[in-house]
C-alpha cells in the first residue's frame, strides 16, 4: 500500500501540478483547504470552489477547514512587513496537526508550487512543524512544474486568483497604480 500524504492546498491552480507529481511518486494524496488569510470572503469562496473543481477533476478528497480571517487580519496589520511568516507557519501547523490526526505518513503544501514564496523559509517552517507534531514534512520544489499547472488550470477553466490572498498582498499588487494620478474617462 502506498503512503498517504496530506497536502495543504492554498488554491486550485496551485494544487494541480503538486497532486500530479505526488501521485507519480506513488503517494495517496488527501487535501486540506485551510486559508484564513484569504480576503475578502468572496475571494475565499472563489478559491474554495476552484479547488473543489480541481479535486473533482483529479479525484482527490479534500477537507475544508473553518474560515475565520479575523486573527489573521489582526496579526498581519500589526506588522504588515512581516506578515507572511506567521501566515505560512499557521497554515503549516494546521496541516501537520491534521496529518497527524488522520494518521498520514507525511504532509506538504502547494505553497511550494509558487514562484513568489520563500522556499527556504517554507521548508524551515514545515520541518519545524513536523518536529512539533511528529509527522514528516515532505519537501519538493514544485516550481519546476509552474507552466504545466498554469496551462492545465486555463484549459480546465479554473479560477486563477490575481494575488496571494490577504488584503495587504492585494494592496501591494496595486501600489504602483495608487501612486499614479487618477485616470479621467472620456
From TrEMBL:
Residues where [4Fe-4S] cluster binds: 10-11, 84, 87
GO molecular function per UniProt: 4 iron, 4 sulfur cluster binding; epoxyqueuosine reductase activity; metal ion binding
A single BP term in Gene Ontology: tRNA queuosine(34) biosynthetic process
EC number: 1.17.99.6
Keywords assigned by UniProt, alphabetized: 4Fe-4S, Disulfide bond, Iron, Iron-sulfur, Metal-binding, Oxidoreductase, Queuosine biosynthesis, Redox-active center, tRNA processing
Record keyword Ubl conjugation present: no
InterPro entries linked: QueH, Xyl_isomerase-like_sf
Pfam families attached to this UniProt entry: QueH (PF02677)
Similarity comment: Belongs to the QueH family.
Function of the molecule: Catalyzes the conversion of epoxyqueuosine (oQ) to queuosine (Q), which is a hypermodified base found in the wobble positions of tRNA(Asp), tRNA(Asn), tRNA(His) and tRNA(Tyr).
The name this protein goes by in its record: Epoxyqueuosine reductase QueH
Species the sequence originates in: Solidesulfovibrio fructosivorans JJ]
Organism classification: Bacteria, Pseudomonadati, Thermodesulfobacteriota, Desulfovibrionia, Desulfovibrionales
Amino acid at each position: 500500500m502506498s503512503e498517504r500524504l496530506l497536502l495543504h492546498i492554498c488554491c486550485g491552480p496551485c494544487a494541480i501540478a503538486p497532486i500530479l507529481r505526488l501521485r507519480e511518486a506513488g503517494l495517496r494524496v488527501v487535501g486540506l483547504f485551510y486559508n484564513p488569510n484569504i480576503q475578502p470572503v468572496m475571494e475565499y469562496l472563489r478559491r474554495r470552489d476552484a479547488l473543489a473543481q480541481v479535486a473533482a477533476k483529479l479525484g482527490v478528497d479534500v477537507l475544508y477547514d473553518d474560515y475565520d480571517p479575523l486573527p489573521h487580519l489582526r496579526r498581519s496589520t500589526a506588522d504588515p512587513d512581516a506578515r507572511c511568516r506567521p501566515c505560512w507557519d499557521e497554515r503549516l501547523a494546521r496541516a501537520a496537526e491534521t496529518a497527524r490526526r488522520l494518521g498520514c505518513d507525511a504532509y506538504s503544501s502547494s505553497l511550494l508550487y509558487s514562484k513568489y514564496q520563500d522556499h527556504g523559509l517554507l521548508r524551515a517552517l514545515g520541518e519545524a512543524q513536523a518536529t512539533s507534531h511528529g509527522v514528516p514534512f515532505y519537501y519538493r520544489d514544485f516550481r519546476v512544474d509552474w507552466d504545466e499547472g498554469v496551462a492545465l488550470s486555463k484549459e480546465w477553466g479554473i479560477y486563477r486568483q490575481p494575488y496571494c490572498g490577504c488584503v495587504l498582498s492585494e494592496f501591494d499588487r496595486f501600489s504602483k497604480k495608487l501612486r499614479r494620478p487618477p485616470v479621467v474617462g472620456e
